Amino acid sequence: MIGSDVIRGYNDTIILYLLLEAPSYGYEISRKIRELSEEKYVIKETTLYSAFTRLERKGYVESFYGDETNGKRRTYYKITESGREYYREKCEEWRVTREVIEKFICKI
Amino acid sequence: MIGSDVIRGYNDTIILYLLLEAPSYGYEISRKIRELSEEKYVIKETTLYSAFTRLERKGYVESFYGDETNGKRRTYYKITESGREYYREKCEEWRVTREVIEKFICKI
DNA sequence: TTTTATTACCACGACAGACATAGTAATTGC
DNA sequence: GCAATTACTATGTCTGTCGTGGTAATAAAA
Q: How far is CA A4 from CA A10, A30, A82, B53, in A?
């Protein structure tokens, strides 16, 4: 039940995290976000797919088609070295952001 | 040096925090954000003033003119009860958001 | 056997928030 | 007298999110 505004700056980071270990595809990523966040964040389909496009345009992921013989064809995404680097930077930025926001939180 | 995307969801909350104790105005709020964040977050003027407009439209703040006899006239903003309530909710949401994001951070 | 649910993806357009740019207006310090 | 600082506003652009709706395949239920 997190609003999209507050997590907005981290959608790309979340997706990249889920690609660190192995390539994946839209539906699986979506499911993993829901599960890992314990239903607290459910990414919208359109948000997810437009994030993939953006990440690919920036060179942080590469796409390829799966070789499924049944079911609809999947588009898989694989994180690039530059994507890993970007992820690391975002993790660093997160620590700073968290500290800053906490200075303005909870005075009630 | 925080990107605007990552703090975007908290601009309103940050402003409301700075109004909890006493009414204030644009330039002062801007300075306090810079100081409290130790220069890590500098809000853009236009972002700030458009936030005031939004907060007032939503009934979270009320504006009035200061009685400065010299200098340019200031527009002061005062937090409303509904603004305080909204601030409290945002603080709660922050805790959830932080926990969720941390599940996707720092696996490198 | 038709319908429904689930998996899987994409196109299009609307909207809101952040920001660049530029302008107005007054005071203080050099 | 001119720059720097204070204080605010108007206008238009850009990006990310999301609503709506469509395509396509399979499995299970009715």
A: 10, 15, 26, 21
Question: A44: closest CA among A4, A83, A89?
Answer: A4
In A27-56, the residues whose Cβ lies within 8 Å of chain B are 36-37, 40-41
User: Rounded to whole angstroms, how far apart are CA atoms A56 and A75?
Assistant: 12
Any idea what DSSP says for residue A38?
T
Q: Is the pLDDT of residue B12 over 80?
A: yes
Starting from the edge strand earliest in sequence, which strands make up the sheet with A75-79, in order? A24-25, A75-79, A61-65
User: Spelled out in words, what is the top-level CATH class assigned to the domain B4-101?
Assistant: mainly alpha
Which nucleotide lies closest to A10 by the C1' atom and the CA atom? D16
- Chain C nucleotides near the protein (CB, 7 A): 7-13, 17-22, 25-28
The pLDDT score that the predictor gives to residue B71 is 66
Cα-based distances in Å from A61 to A8, A12, A58, B98, B102: 19, 11, 8, 25, 22
Kindly report whether the global pTM for this prediction surpasses the value 0.85: yes
- Reply yes or no on whether the pLDDT at B69 is more than 80: no
Measured CA to C1', what is the nucleotide nearest A29?
C8
pLDDT at B30 over 60: yes
- Where residue B70 falls among pLDDT bands split at 50, 70, 90? low
Residue A101: pLDDT over 90: yes
